[in-house]
Amino acid sequence: MNILNKNMIEFIKKIPKAELHIHLEGSIEPEMMLLLAQKNKIRFKYKTIEDLKKAYSFEDLRDFLYVYTQGTKVLKTAEDFYNITKAYLEKSYSQNVLHTEIFIDFQTYVRRGIASDVIMDGTWAAIKEMNESKGMTAYLLLAFLRHLGAKSAMETLEEGLKYKDKLTGVGLASTEIGYPPELFKEVFDKARETGFKTTAHAGEEGPAEYVRNSIEILKVDRIDHGNKAMDDPGLVKMIVERQIPLTLCPLSNVALGNVNHLKNHTLKKKLDMGMLVSVNSDDPAYFGGYVNENMIAVARALNLTKKDIVKLAQNSFISSFLPENKKKEYLEMISHI
Ligand code: HPA
Ligand code: ZN
Question: What are the strands of the beta sheet with 17-23, ordered from one edge?
Answer without folding.
Answer: 17-23, 97-104, 137-145, 167-173, 197-202, 222-225, 246-248, 277-279
